[in-house]
């Protein structure tokens, strides 16, 4: 006898959020025909796995309501071949217009990205700008984090220094085939933080487990 394996409730939740963008626990419970208590257990598990996130929205006199949506990590659970398509497209461009022209195109792309980042980051303190930069990288699928380096006893007068880490690469397919994008990314960070020097300390393409950057105030 052949049995059909039904998708799990967690997968049903993820598929619903992918289709509808966001939903409350009550809406999910009604749609999937399971109890609110059960749906909240599944939502808690998915949140701990990093697959979903929520925002609290005030609805009047009652308690704030949680609105759930997929996180970048949750979206990655659904098959996509965007990276392969991007590499194939760049390979075709290289064959058509030449490798040098492709390098120029990638350079222009990162210059545009730097302008976008700078506009969104604004003019706060360096710590605020680094935090905002990491937040934007996270929204693009990077598992990014940052922390402040404390001055050492030897050098108490050192300028502000921060470490930015990215534990994955959202464009790994492209970076493997066109490693020049990593150089452009470093230039982009420097352009976004013009009052700093930015140095690469770790590089996934070199076989390390993360990309790391040291940001120093001038």
UniProtKB/TrEMBL annotation:
Superkingdom of the source species: Bacteria
CDD domains: HTH_ARSR (cd00090)
InterPro entries in UniProt: ArsR-like_HTH, SUF_FeS_clus_asmb_SufR_cyano, WH-like_DNA-bd_sf, WH_DNA-bd_sf
PANTHER family: SLL0088 PROTEIN, TRANSCRIPTIONAL REGULATORY PROTEIN
Protein name: Iron-sulfur cluster biosynthesis transcriptional regulator SufR
UniProt source species: Limnofasciculus baicalensis BBK-W-15
């Amino acid at each position: 006898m052949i049995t059909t394996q039904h998708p799990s409730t967690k997968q049903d939740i993820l598929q619903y959020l992918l289709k509808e963008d966001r939903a409350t626990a009550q809406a999910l419970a009604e749609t999937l025909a399971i109890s609110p208590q059960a749906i909240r257990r599944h939502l808690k598990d998915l949140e701990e796995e990093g697959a979903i996130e929520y925002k609290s929205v005030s609805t009047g006199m009652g308690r704030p309501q949680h609105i759930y949506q997929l996180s970048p990590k949750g979206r990655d659970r659904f098959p996509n071949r965007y990276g392969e398509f991007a590499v194939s497209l760049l390979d075709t461009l290289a064959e058509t217009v030449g490798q040098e022209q492709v390098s120029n195109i990638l350079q222009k792309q990162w210059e545009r990205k730097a302008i976008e980042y700078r506009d969104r980051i604004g003019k706060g303190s360096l710590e605020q700008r680094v935090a905002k930069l990491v937040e934007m990288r996270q929204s693009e699928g990077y598992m990014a984090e940052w922390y402040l380096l404390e001055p050492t006893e030897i050098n108490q007068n050192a300028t502000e220094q921060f470490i930015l880490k990215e534990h994955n690469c959202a464009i790994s397919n492209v970076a493997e085939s066109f490693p020049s994008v990593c150089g452009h990314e470093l230039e982009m960070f420097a352009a976004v933080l013009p009052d700093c020097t930015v140095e690469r300390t770790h590089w996934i393409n070199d076989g390390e487990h993360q990309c790391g950057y040291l940001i120093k105030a001038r």
